[in-house]
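Revision sheet: C-alpha cells.
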Amino acid sequence: MYDINVNSKAKGEISEGLVIAHLLKLGYSISMPFGDNQRYDLIVDDGGRLWRAQVKTGRFRRGCVIFNCVSLNAFTQQRFSYRGQIDTFLVYCPDMDKVYWVPIEKATSSEMCLRVDQPGCKGPRATIKWARDFELVGRKGLEPLTHAL
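Predicted:
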C-alpha cells in the first residue's frame, strides 16, 4: 500500500521500479527508452521477443485489481488508447504485491478489472478475466513468454 501523501507520479515511479525488479528476478532483460516521448515505459526481452510495455498501478477494489487501459490528458480530459503503440500492460497492485502481464489484445478499451475474489452475484462467468490468469510468476529458465497470450 502506498503512503496516502505520495502523488500519482511518484506512485507510478514506485510501481515501475517494483515491476522492473520483479522482471529481473524472473530472468527477463529490461531496456528503457530515452526520454518521455514514447507511449511505452519499458522494453521486455523474454529471450524470443521484445515487448513494448506500459506500466500501470492497479487498485484492489470490490474483489478486483482495477487499472486504466488509456492515458488521460489532465488539461483536456481527453482519453488516449495504447492500441498499436504497446504490446502489453504490466500492472503492479500494491494491495496484492503482485505483477500482472496483460497483452493489449486482452485489455478493455478504458478500465480493466482482473477478478481476484469470487463475485457475489450469480451471473455468467465466461466474461470474467481472472487475475490468476495474468499473474506474472516464475519462469523455467529463459524460454520465451507464452502465458496469457
